[in-house]
Batch of 3 targets.
Target 1
Amino acid sequence: MTINCVTAMAVKSFDLPDRKRCPDKAEFDLCTVNDYSVAKLILGPGWRWSVDTRPYEQTDVCLHHHLGFCISGMMEVETAEGLHSLIHANDTYAIPPGHDEWVVGTEPFVAVEFIGAASFVRRAGRGVHARI
């Protein structure tokens, strides 16, 4: 079993991300600190994975693992088994592969993700996680 450890100090600001992706109704700011990728997501009202991101990922459902913290807004998640969860401001969340997700209401969903988002909206990403 491999254990990941932080071995050196690193600080980066989302004011100057390493990469920015801006597909329809979304913005993903990506930073790498040492061997770790962290992403700030801003998903606009009306954004839905199955409508707005599926064409890039080329899969029927989102195949990414997500571990994050919601700063503001709301997002609903539906698993392939039909389970629903609503994520609100100040919620932490873990979402396994095999889901759809969409912004609820008129406020953007803003979150920081520690697993999953570095690979968002890569053409034919098919759920494969990537370093920035």
Target 2
Amino acid sequence: MHKEITSQYLAALEMMKQVIEKCPDDLWQDASHANPFWHVAYHALFYAHLYAQPEEAAFVPWEKHRPNLNAFGPTPWVPDEPWERGEPYSQAEMLDYLAICQNEITKQTSQLNPEAPSGFDWIPLNKLELQFYNIRHLQLHIGELCERLWAEAGIEVGWVGKFPND
């Protein structure tokens, strides 16, 4: 089971890699969407990284993380806290972060206890269901970005069914 979960995470991350690599510069920073392309990519990778951890306390954010940038606006638990998106991450930075996520997911899924609690108070699932939840979240945003690439630049992203893609 660990092998299959790892394969599906890595397949989704390979699709995210394609999305990031194929995105034209003007679309990467396009502010005509509520959440620019780069920000959606960062959000998806942040949560893939976070929820791969055994528990919240074990999470060490990426060294380039900016506070609250994982959210798409002010967080519900501190709605009055100032929120600013700031400068975009570059595609190279996102690819670096993606590689960190690939390594963390490979490491953490190999140690997965499927019956253990999620490790996150706000997610009342066991570890196995959390993996499905996390992969679905990641793929939701990959699909969103694939649609943007196609609609705005005519760029297609190939399907990765499993990793490695045989």
Target 3
Amino acid sequence: MAVKGNTVVFRTLCFLIILHFVIALINAATITEMETLHTSLFTGYNKNVRPITNQNSAINVNIYMTIKSIREFDEVDERFSFVAALLLVWTDEKLQWDPSVNGGIEQLTVSFGDVWVPEMTLSSPSSKGSTIGKSTDRIRVDQFGQMEWIPAGLIESTCSVNAKKFPFDTQSCDTSFTSLGYKSHEVNLLAGMPDISFDAYAPHTLWDVTGSKVNVITVATGNESEITFTIKLKRDSTFAVINIIMPISILSMLNVLVFLLVPESGERIGYCITTLLAIAVYMTIVNDLLPQTSKPVPLITYKLFIDLFISALIVCVTILNMRLYSRDDSYIVPAWLKSVYRFLTCTRSKISRIGNGEVEPVIVISSKNSKQIIPDSKSGYSEKEKIHELEKSEGEGNLITWKKISYMVDWIVLFTSIFMSLLNVIIFVGLAKS
């Protein structure tokens, strides 16, 4: 009984399959029926007339966009190009038929030049006006007159660049289209989706897509509608950080190390000038990567200017400090400069003053004997000269010379420059990442 039941089911299934193919063969449209339908539809068809019965009404055109890849984003020329496909859907009331009397035909494919199309033009071109669509395009139409047109290709649009936070910047690029030659009450552009489709998108090496949106607006004249596709991009900052930010920061740190070179080496001036030129070269490289009319001015431009200023200041201080180092000891170091030196080196003066302003006698104890040094008030020396003589009599270890003052300046400028360079980097990164 089970075998007989399976045989019945198998026979029934085979009968249904054969019946399906027979019906499909009977309903299959022949080439003659296709040509007849095409001739009947396009007899008297005028593609220059909007295909809507009520000519006072607007034809609604739904527009979708799918982006395949980003080809180029030139920040200097503010040019944005990408490969994309548009899907335009509208209803042509002239191209409608009954499939039951036309061999079951439900869809047709027609040439771009044979039917009315809402010709679209790029209203934000990078160089010259660009009309969407080619004569080789094909358009599908169904029995209800719904038209589907998919123009695809390279779209080159302008994009206003905001490079304030370069290389941690984000960009928002608008690509706008309008129906050429039609007012908004004749052709009404509608957004098919609230955003752009990236289902077939191939990622870009430098820019990441963070979002998109679609808006339909009325242009300034108030007569034409315009659809705008907005793409939000975020720069991959790895390349710029490794090749620009890090080298500049390293150069800034190397620049301050000039004060650790001994003056006798004779390399100080050449070293700091070479570093200054290297920073200037990097400043030129960065300026070539950014638009010249960028507003606001990129933060990295201010950072590079501060680095250049610090480097130039180091060159000036190095030159002046070399003069201090080479100054003859016959020129007495000013008392205030000695006080600064003693304060920074945490040393105390062995020379004190008595109430009447004269120099108090000083006892100097040496390894062999002790002696009292009393300045001769009748020798004609000034008070500063007497103090200088007393310091000399105490030994070279206690004498504050111009070389010691030069070393003091080296350390002061070294730590000050390091602090300024680090502060410059921290402020730049903080503002750019915020």
